[in-house]
Inverse folding.
């Protein structure tokens, strides 16, 4: 995967820190939230998380469907690991995840539309989310 210069408007993140990542439509980047406080602690164009979970609040999705207005209700949750931030991942190891509240109820594999709930890693970059499959090391 190609890595471009990323905007790093985020504080120093701690090894193993549990984070929630969501795409920020107005800033065109990802917001980083502390899982414990749920407060936004920064923004970035690229972040890689280990032990990823793909979360969608069904009540948040229902509100989007009812009001036809976007709100933040879908996240990638995982642990921050310094060593993963500059790692290159072979194309064969990653697949693109997809979520659109008007079309699917959870994150899905973009190619097969099968639900995704967990992955060993998640790569959030260029406005998209990718997830690891198999053994990349």
């Amino acid at each position: 995967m190609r890595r471009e210069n990323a905007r790093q408007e985020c504080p120093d993140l701690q090894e193993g820190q549990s984070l929630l990542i969501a795409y920020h439509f107005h800033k065109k980047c990802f917001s980083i939230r502390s899982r414990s406080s749920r407060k936004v602690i920064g923004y970035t164009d690229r972040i890689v998380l280990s032990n990823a979970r793909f979360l969608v609040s069904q009540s948040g999705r229902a509100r989007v469907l009812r009001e036809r207005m976007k709100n933040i209700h879908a996240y990638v949750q995982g642990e921050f690991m310094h060593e993963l931030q500059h790692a290159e991942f072979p194309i064969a190891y990653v697949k693109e995840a997809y979520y659109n509240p008007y079309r699917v109820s959870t994150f899905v594999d973009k190619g097969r539309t099968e639900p995704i709930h967990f992955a060993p890693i998640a790569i959030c970059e260029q406005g998209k989310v990718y997830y690891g499959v198999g053994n990349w090391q």
Observations:
- The chain has one helix and nine strands.
- The helical segments are 58-67.
